[in-house]
Amino acid sequence: YPVPVHVQNSINNALGGSVDNAQLYTRFYLFENTIGTTREPVLDQKYVKLATSFQLVFQLRSSENIYIPYLRMQYTTRQWNELRLTNRADSLNTTTADIDNDATHYPAITWETYYFANQLLYHILFFVFFVIFLVIGVGLTILESCIFLKKKRGHGALDIEFSLKLIFFVVKNLSNAIFAVLFFQCLFWFWFFKNQRSALLLLPLDVDLIPYYICLPLGFILKLLQILIQTHVQTRLDLFFIDWEKTRGKIIENEGRSATGNVPISIWRTIYVARAWKKLSLKRQVSLEITLLFTLFFITGIGLIDLSSTFPNWNIKFGSLLDTLNIGYHPLLRYAIFSMVYVLTWGLFFVFKKYFWFRFIHNPITQFIDFCSVANISVLLLTERYFGYYIHGESVHQYSDTNMKEFNQNLYMEKEDAVLRRGLVADSPAQEQVFQIFLTEQFRNMYQQKLLIPLHEERAKAKNRYNLLSKTAKVDNTADNASGPLQEGGITVGFDERRKRKTQFEQIRLWKFLNPNWQRAPVESLYDAYTDLNEYLKGFFNKMRIDQQNIREMQLTNRLGIPPNLKKEPSSILYIDHKNSFTKSLLWDMETTFVVFNIFAFALFDLIFMQIPYIASIQSAFLAVFIVYLLNAALFLIRKYMSHWNTANKTLLDQRFL
User: Fold this and answer.
1) Phi, psi (5° rounding) for residue 482?
2) Parallel, antiparallel, or unpaired for β 31-32 and 5-7?
3) Is 55 within 8 Å of 113 (Cβ atoms)?
4) How far apart are CA 376 and CA 391, in angstroms?
5) pLDDT tens for residues 488-499?
6) In the beta sheet, which residues pair with residue 116?
């Protein structure tokens, strides 16, 4: 059967048009010189027509059946004097490199074999999966918003806090829906394309990948926005360290005849607990560097990335065969390979850390709780207005700030079970120390009045003092060039004085930039408020320990995050938290978020680098992994800076010791 020829740029066919309505031919030529024929000799002809590209097109019809193949080609017109005559004398002086690098004088002909199929089923599946996961995401967003509003109990329901939370829920669930759609779609193409024994499935072409090209950067941007919002929220939480240490008595002077006050309680235990908290807030369960290193080893060192080639077979020799056959790579298969390898690598390390390392070797969470108990410091963390977490760190010994001998004796007595057990619940064998706390309106108002409102007022005063100083010290740049004195309010200000003011202002501005906690100056009223709040919280939790009715076990609704109806409760409620869920406010609990983000980032930048000439597949994977590492490092530095600022600001501790 004669193969039809489709000349794309002929007079009767529009370039890029469909073959269905095109005029087809039964023959073609490589060189045609009649277009420029004149009565002059052949060498004086002006134009010739040359064939430049051929594509043998196969369209899949059904299982192992194809439509009639056809030859798609294009012509180009050149001036005769542009072409080099290839007689024997010229060919002896012409090298292969000259021909390859001179497309004008030596036009090249390209040949491709083109396979495609109707991808209507692909678009339908993509749309169905997207709608299903989008509906699930919308449902989760509505549920989480309702739970958040119930925790707020109608206080400023439509304020900035709720708007930020709503945006967070939307971008989180939408990005997760996009990831799920892309992951399962790419996994579908990878599995069925590589396992087919006959021509059943062909990979989508670029024109069919438009939904993928839209969803991939959209998912990356949404997940990045989610991480930034979550970092902002988690680094602005209300944090307070409750010091349970008692004074050792009064200071006696003048040979025991007069008492000048109580023995001061050392602040160093609080500083060390704050340092440990800051360090814990920046910990991750699985090392990013090790995960990326092993992932890179599997996809490039072993060569699993070569499975993303358009060769429909598992039995392929990696590396050289792909270069020899000039087989390309498909973005859907590369996404499937990296996501599977990264998820499996991360999953193996996560299972190892959670069920072996953290259980038998070293667990930073439980060690921080133990450290609080040894230091006699409790932690109150309020993640929302009426909800938060409480880590009970009151020591079972009389004093924690003691010498080495007494300190080791206390630990030995606790080991031999010679003292009361730790925890807020009286002598409980489970030693409950972590709780979820639901606050009443009265408690929250008391917390605001005793610490947060005075803190904001002092920061506002400090800011006003700085603005006043900067206003008096700031000098217009045009005044520096004035030759004579400057009049300010009837007072003559000389050039040297203006220069001194400007230098002073620049030093203050630099100091403000290097010291983010500049707005809080040492104010005695703030430290009095801190001490007052510390005594109030000690009394509050002592009352909770005496009256055990408000310390409860978590029910199913509480585990799902649904808060109780505190309007019917006379006081705040503590729910025993056996799973240490206060880690939800730390970087510790953002592992899955960063897994999805890293997959999005790798797929996006790998797709970008693959479009750049002279960058091979392995080089593109290396560059994409490096970009992923840089993004994670930048996000970590942002979180570290904001966490440092929040800890110093909310606890009134000097940031230089954190």
Assistant:
1) -70, 140
2) unpaired
3) yes
4) 11
5) 444 555 556 555
6) 59
pLDDT digits (tens, 9 = 90+) for 525-554: 778 888 888 999 999 998 888 888 888 888
pLDDT value for 625? 94
Q: Which residue has the tokens 């005063």?
A: 461
- What is the DSSP-derived secondary structure letter of residue 326? T
Instruction: Determine the longest span between alpha carbons in the chain, in angstroms.
Output: 133
Going by C-beta distance under 8 Å and a sequence separation of 6 or more, which residues neighbour residue 68? 1, 3, 4
The total of other beta-carbon atoms located within 10 Å of residue 79's CB is: 12
Q: What is the DSSP string of 403-437?
A: -HHHHHHHHHHHHTT-SPPSSSSTT-TT---EEEE
Contact 390, 435 (CB under 8 A): yes
Calpha distance 65→131 (Å, rounded):
33
The half-sphere exposure of 354 on its side-chain side, counting CA atoms within 13 A, is 13
Q: Are strands 551-553 and 491-493 parallel, antiparallel or unpaired?
A: unpaired
The rounded distance, in Å, linking the Cα atoms of 265 and 23 is 95
**What is the per-residue pLDDT across 403-458, written as a single tens digit (0 to 9) for each?**
899 989 988 998 888 888 888 886 676 678 899 999 888 888 888 888 877 777 77
∠122-124-129 over CA atoms, to 5°? 95
3-state DSSP assignment of residue 401 = coil
What SS3 class is residue 478?
helix
Q: Give the C-alpha separation, 90 to 84, whole Å.
A: 8
Phi, psi of 424 (to 5 degrees): -80, -30
Place 88 in a pLDDT band, splitting at 50, 70 and 90: very low
Burial class (CB in 10 A: 0-12, 13-18, 19+), 232: middle
Q: How many CB atoms lie within 10 A of CB 51?
A: 18
- Residue 375's closest CA among 472, 464, 277? 277
> Which residue, 649, 564, 619, 647, is CA-closest to 273?
647
Please list, in sequence order, all residues whose beta carbon lies within 8 angstroms of the beta carbon of residue 637, skipping any fewer than 6 positions away.
Answer: none
Q: Which helix (H) or strand (E) element contains residue 486?
A: strand 486-488
Instruction: Please choose, from the candidates 59, 51, 57, 60, the residue with its C-alpha nearest in 3D space to the C-alpha of residue 27.
Output: 51
User: What average pLDDT does this structure show over 115-130?
Assistant: 80
Q: Which two tokens stand for residue 423?
A: 């925890």
Closest CA to 575 of 560, 589, 588: 560
Can you tell me the mean pLDDT for 245-273?
76
Q: Which residue has the tokens 């309505």?
A: 21
Contact 135, 177 (CB under 8 A): no
Q: How confident is the model at residue 54 (pLDDT cuts 50, 70, 90)?
A: confident
User: How far is residue 50's CA from residue 125's CA, in Å, rounded to a whole number?
Assistant: 44
